[in-house]
Amino acid sequence: MKGSELYDDPDFLSGYRQLRRDRLGLNDSLEIPAMNAVLPAVEGLRVVDLGCGEGRLAVRLASGGAEVVAVDASEQMLAAASRHPRVRYVRADLAEFDLPPESVELVVSSLALHYVEDFSGLVGRVARWLTPGGTFAFSIEHPVVTAPLVAADCVVDDYADEGPRQRAWFVDGVIKYHQTLGTVLGVLRQHGFRLNVVDEPLPTAEQVERHPHLAVHRRRPPLLLVSAVR
Ligand SMILES: C[S@@+](CC[C@H](N)C(=O)[O-])C[C@H]1O[C@@H](n2cnc3c(N)ncnc32)[C@H](O)[C@@H]1O
Known about the structure:
CATH superfamily: Vaccinia Virus protein VP39
Structural class: alpha/beta
Bound molecules: S-adenosylmethionine
Number of strands: 9
Radius of gyration: 17 Å
Oligomer: single chain
CATH topology: Rossmann fold
């Protein structure tokens, strides 16, 4: 199942929402603090959030004074999204979504772009949307996690074979796209971005002591977070 339809699947969605409610995902412990650390001051900025889900990041940015367009393919995620007067939600597939050139100062995306097949095509559009000096900050599943054709914890395999991967995550057949770290960073450079931050957020030993389910994420990095400037 592709990312554009996955989050409207009732079985997947109930599992995913439970994970977020129980705070057992990577979002609260790793991704959100790492993303907050790379975001610029957003007062007065025009921002796009790609794969916004239920809008937590979009609302945080709007609360900081940004005007946010928050994009997601899932009807269910958008229906449950938090409202804010400076957030405009748009239902669209990231494979096609487009904006006028130089119309935003910041593009963000949390844990959504590993569902996009044509990463380079999307990065090319993001480069066009951004004003000169604008920032693109995104997190994805780490390439060492997406690599194996057959999912196995802490086994890096098939690294060079970029392309779709099928995973079981609440439902069978979830499709994500693997690319090497070199490809991810190289695509940004090809589209004129200068890398600002490349981060692999990891839990601290203290976090693992308090939340033992995070232990696996000290064995291999679960996330890649990049901030790049146009
Ligand atoms: C893991 S959730 C992250 C949601 C949100 N960014 C957050 O951090 O809470 C991934 C989101 O990406 C969206 N998504 C996946 N593939 C997409 C696509 N091709 N077009 C638009 N949205 C997509 C899903 O609907 C889902 O809401």
